[in-house]
Amino acid sequence: MNTTNSDVILNAVFDKKTIIKYHWIMLIPIALFIITIPFVILGAIIYKFFLVRIVDNWSATLTSRSLIVRKGVFNKIEKTIPLEKITDLSTTEGPIMRYCGLKSIGVETAGQSGASGAPLISLLGIVDTDNFRSQVLAQRDLITGSSAAINTDKPAPPSSSPGELQEIADTLRRMETLLDRIASGNNDSSGQ
Q1: Cα separation, 178 vs 66, whole angstroms
Q2: Rounded CA gap, 121 and 59, in Å?
Q3: Could you tell me the end-to-end alpha-carbon distance of the chain, in angstroms, rounded to an integer?
Q4: What is the DSSP secondary-structure string of 71-104?
Q5: Which pTM value belongs to this model?
Q6: Is the C-alpha dihedral spanning 66, 70, 76, 79 positive or negative?
Q7: pLDDT tens, 86-105?
Q8: Sheet holding 77-82, edge to edge
């Protein structure tokens, strides 16, 4: 189109530096993503290498009297938990764990030294977790003589004889008399 200088009212001037700066800024997220892909892939390979070594060093062994747990690649940790100290074996299964088919068992003990509310030991990914859990609890019940492991149809015999019951009743009467005396002594002294 032919225009003469007299027909031009205004020529647009483009800010070349700002336009280039804008496009470069828009390229930064894309460039970072493209640049980080090789690092992420390399990191994933290294991470898998270490995870294989870490999981290879995990073991949990149920003996007749204890549960022995071993972990660690550089710092080896071995914990022997007496079965009579185990109060519960809790299982955890979050959505991602459920998707992967994993469960975690938390070993809770009497006199626990783990963080408040956290299990003493956590075992992730045991094959047939529910069976392992029930075997540990059954062995614990067997050695502690827990009534949950014993299933009989006979009612349990009374644990006390009539003479013992009479002795308990006499002790309770003496305690009641003593408490009455103490209470009446406090009432007399408060009225003065």
Answers
A1: 48
A2: 12
A3: 120
A4: E-SSS-EEEEEEGGGEEEEEEE--HHHHHHT--E
A5: 0.56
A6: negative
A7: 998 999 998 998 888 898 99
A8: 59-62, 66-71, 77-82
